[in-house]
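Protocol step 4 of 6: structure prediction from sequence.
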Amino acid sequence: MNSRRDYRSTRNALFDGIEEGGIRAASSYSSHEIAELDNDRAVDGLEERVNILKRLTGDIHEEVENHNRALDRMGNDMDTSRGVLSGTMDRFKMVFETKSRRRMATLVASFVALFLLIYYLTK
């Protein structure tokens, strides 16, 4: 009897709650048949857990793919914005390089006057 208890305790430690409940042995079952039934239940429980993990990994894979697509779109949008901004800066530089000093001084004076006007209006 003590070896059977040891078998049960090591088996329970091995499967750690995988199987639910125990098998009630009728007097017609041998210990080998009971062990086979226990193993079958444990295998069924493991198979169920494997299926759950498989679905879970499939869901994780799908979520990762969705995030990668969103990141790719965002990267493409950033590249487009960088191109537009670069073109604007090039045009801005060209305007300031081709303008005469007099026009540049007039432009700067206009910005300063506009700033002072807005400052006094908001005060």
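Step 5 (inspection) to follow. The chain has a mean pLDDT of 79.
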